[in-house]
Amino acid sequence: MSLPVIYVENLTRRFGDFVAVDHINFEVNAGEVVGYLGPNGSGKTTTIRMLLGLLEPSEGEATVLGFDAFRQSEEVRKRVGYMSQKFAIYDDLTTLENLTFYGGVYGVNDKARIQHTLELVGLKGHENTLTRDMSTGWRQRLSLGIALVHEPKLLFLDEPTSGVDPTARRAFWDLIYELAEGGVTILVTTHYMDEAEYCERVGVMRDGKLLAMDTPTNLKKSIITGDVWEVYAHPLEQGLEILSAMPGVERVGLAGDHLRVISSKVGKTAMKGLLSREGLSVEKIERGEPTLEDVFLALAR
Amino acid sequence: MTNYLVQASNLQKHFGDTHAVNGVDLNIGSGEIYGLVGSDGAGKTTTIRLLVGALLPDKGDVTICGYDLRKQTELARSTIGYLSQRFSMYEDLTVLENIRFFAEIRGLSSTEWLPRSMEILEFVGLDKFKDRRAGQLSGGMKQKLGLASALVTRPRLLLLDEPTTGVDPVTRQDFWQLVIKLVSQPAIANPKSQIQNHESNGVSVIISTPYMDEASRCHRVGFMKKGKIIAEDTPSNLRAHLNGRVLELRGNPINILRHVAHQDEDVEDVAAFGDKLHVRVRAGKSSLIMKRLPKEIESAGGELTELRAIPTTLEDVFIALSEDQ
User: Fold this and answer.
1) Which residues 11-40 of A are in CB contact (within 8 Å) with B?
2) Residue B200 contacts A, CB cutoff 8 Å
3) In the CATH scheme, what architecture does the domain B241-323 have?
4) Which pLDDT tens digit goes with each residue over A142-195?
């Protein structure tokens, strides 16, 4: 079977005059982990809602696991899992009770399968913990468990790691890879570019349009055509202003304790000269490597 | 008299049996951006609440701008701006009305708050939206309104508890530019500083965050674990501990690479990044492993196309510190 798991053609959604999703096209293949990025309000969640059959497209079509996402939404929802931005779990129920409840919603009453799901997301031993007493990281695992209890072939994760610390995020991504190895296809939205690096392919949305979708490596190559420079100069804030106004500089951003400059025209000597003339102390300027954050900022501005 | 704007010594706070904060010392200089990081439940938010004076410590002292938080509570608090994890705003009030509300609670008179609010709104870029209802603002704009509300009293110390959770990179860049501007141009926060109790004029920021790219924007970072700060330094010094110990691998199939790396006894951590792996190795074992891995992968039926040491990130440091006992 080589049919794509998600096939989207000219998919469009309007709310009144506002075009939330504007003629997007993409495909996702079985077992892929695809990241879906974009600023708040760029149309990511609306896309997912159409793929889940919760919203009718204004134009175009979406096929999910071979079914028409809107007209056959029941068939789709039986086979896909969805973990939303706001974890919908009941605070006054335990882990097991939440999972059993949601399993019931999907028609899963098999106790063994619920136990298996608990184990999969690493919550075994915490069956009787009230979810209100759990940390964000654990609540997130439970929420993933809920999305997985009916063994979906395709998983939509909408900002699953918002507010979760690095260790818990690492564990979460290990789990995502385990699922993908087991043949589950995953579409995940995130605001964190280090996580986007984990994905095999990444799409970037802005103002309802899908601007690009490719591997992180190819995106960096095709979008960041200038050189990346790491500029260590003090005071930083003044450096930011001076370099932003420098002709030939494409973008300047803050990166930790230094500035990142992207330019295909301006080099080290020119920047150093200008900053020194303006009275800044220049510690060093060195070559950097493009990151997905650079790609995002280049496309999203 | 020291130059520290914030001094905390041996801060302790229990909740029942939980030692939420267990002996924290902090010395924050004027003009410093200090990042507080650590896992869920490490004590970051409790520490910030103790510094704001929202919680009383069981033990320990806090001095802010020379004022003892316990004995000169009101004076100390008057120097603080605080943005909590879920800062509250009135969705049916306008932007300006929200700021007015915060200003008046803090005792600013109408001749003070109005010019001050306009100045702050311009600074955060919300001046054009002053009459828009807060409920109709985008996520990024709400966050700027929260920051503006915290700045209206001209604080010397800004405490930010996970201010950027769920915010996209463009908005986060804007937010950080504001924070850095505040620190480098104290005139914005304090054009006519009335605080005589402290010699210099810089604004300091303490920010907690689960995101390491943000932590790396701070001047110094404190890593909390079980109520203690177990490591504290500049981001580059923290990263230096792991220099040469993070390797990047590419090849086919990636699963074999991963399993082989996992099994090597000198490998501490393996993380997949799409089509590549990042592997953290034991101190002093890098060159050994770089010779050994290609052979191990080949004999397992895999093909290694790239193997190199890469610059370490604060994320690597975080993971390593979390695992250490």
Assistant:
1) 33, 38-40
2) no
3) 2-Layer Sandwich (3.30)
4) 999 999 999 999 999 988 887 778 888 888 888 898 899 889 999 999 888 888
Cα within 13 Å of Cα(A271), Cβ side = 31
Question: Mind listing the pLDDT tens digit for each residue in A30-86?
Answer: 999 999 998 878 899 899 999 999 999 999 999 999 999 999 999 998 999 999 866
Spatial separation of the C-alpha atoms in residues A292 and A195, rounded to whole Å: 10
Q: Could you check whether the bond before residue A4 is cis, i.e. omega within 30 degrees of 0?
A: no
Structural fold of domain A223-300:
Alpha-Beta Plaits (3.30.70)
For B94, which DSSP code? B
* CB contact B162 to A (< 8 Å): yes
- The pair of structure tokens assigned to B51 is 């510094």
Helix/strand/coil percent split, chain B, to 5: 40, 30, 35
Q: What is the structure's pLDDT at B200?
A: 46
Residue A81 near residue B162 (C-beta atoms within 8 A): no
Q: Quickly name the fold that domain A6-214 has.
A: Rossmann fold (3.40.50)
Mean residue pLDDT of chain A comes to: 90
CA proximity to A26, closest of A176, A299, A214, A293: A214
Where in chain A are the domains? 6-214, 223-300
Helix or strand (DSSP H, E) at A283: strand A281-288
Q: What is the pLDDT of residue A168?
A: 81
| Nearest partner of B49 among B139, B162, B194, judged by Cα | B162
ipTM over 0.95: no
**pLDDT at B4 > cutoff 70:** yes
CATH topology of domain B4-234: Rossmann fold (3.40.50)
DSSP state of B39: S
The residue in chain B having the minimum alpha-carbon distance to the alpha carbon of residue A136 is: B40
The residues near B192 (Cβ < 8 Å, ≥ 6 apart) are: none
At A281 the three-state DSSP class reads strand
Residue B210 near chain A (CB below 8 Å) = yes
* Residue B85, min C-alpha distance to chain A (Å): 10
Is A238 within 8 Å of B275 when comparing Cβ atoms? no
Taking residues B112-127, report their average pLDDT. Answer: 88
pLDDT in the model for residue B195: 42
Among A134, A162, A164, A191, pick the best mutation site for testing chain B contact (most B Cβ within 10 A): A191
Hey, are the CB atoms on B40 and A137 less than 8 Å from each other? yes
Cβ distance B169 to A300 less than 8 Å, yes or no, reads: yes
Chain A residues within an 8 Å CB radius of B272: 173-174, 177, 198
Distance between A37 CA and the closest CA of chain B, angstroms: 9
Q: How many CB pairs under 8 A join A and B?
A: 120
Asked whether residue B192 carries a pLDDT value surpassing 50, the answer given is no
Q: Does B253 touch chain A (CB under 8 A)?
A: no
The stretch A115-131 carries a mean pLDDT of: 89
